[in-house]
Amino acid sequence: MIEDDDDLREEMVFALGELGFEAQGFPAAPAFYKAFALAPCDIAVVDIGLPGESGLSIVSHLRSIRQIGVVLVTARGQLEERLLGLRHGADAYLVKPVHMAELAETLNAIARRLRTEPAIAVDVHADAPAPAPQEPKRSGPWRLLEGDWVLSDPEGRRMKLTTSERAFVACLFRHRGSAVSRDELIRALGGDVFDFDGHRIDAIASRVRRKAEKLGMRLPLHSVRGTGYVLVK
Fold this sequence. Notes:
This protein folds into two domains: 6-114, 3-Layer(aba) Sandwich (Rossmann fold); 143-231, Winged helix-like DNA-binding domain superfamily/Winged helix DNA-binding domain (Arc Repressor Mutant, subunit A), CATH 1.10.10.10. The chain has eight helices and nine strands. The chain has helices at residues 6-18, 29-38, 55-65, 79-87, 100-114, 163-174, 182-188, 199-214, and strands spanning 43-46, 69-74, 92-95, 143-145, 150-152, 158-160, 180-181, 221-224, 228-231. A three-stranded parallel β-sheet has the order 1-2-3, sandwiched between helices.
């Protein structure tokens, strides 16, 4: 997946993993091309409005070198732009916001045409296994600092938050010690509970946990089956 929005890219890659795909994200063409040269993927999911080389140029380049499935995922929804994307060689053109179930079915349909397994993209920079979960420390307060953009643990370690992470964590802090429903978290992210991909909530939670672990922070964030998430006091 080539997508320059860090939050969206990580959320979509995480969601595809939850749906059974092997996926890797890249912010722009150079990083993708480097990984592709080492381990070509079966299908590329490409945004059009990328820094440097555009998504349409990437599609044309991929079409010139090998058989590969290509899905354009972009905010550009005009008919002329959709036709242009298909003329450049895209197998499918999806307009943001894209529901992950729709993207997954699109990838599976292309995979069937290519006669490949449905585990689609190649992860060429797989991270080391995550450390085993540890019980969170409760010896001191967790705090949100600098306008809720920085999360601080009891030992004073700090973690910068992205826009979606800030909204997610701040909502949990407002209800510290109580389970927060997915609907409430969706509203905190500015989403519509009737038209929002719930996988994004899980992706944000997973990303926050991973970032905390890498910094040695034992974040007391837990999922609550059938409800949502809770930040333990």
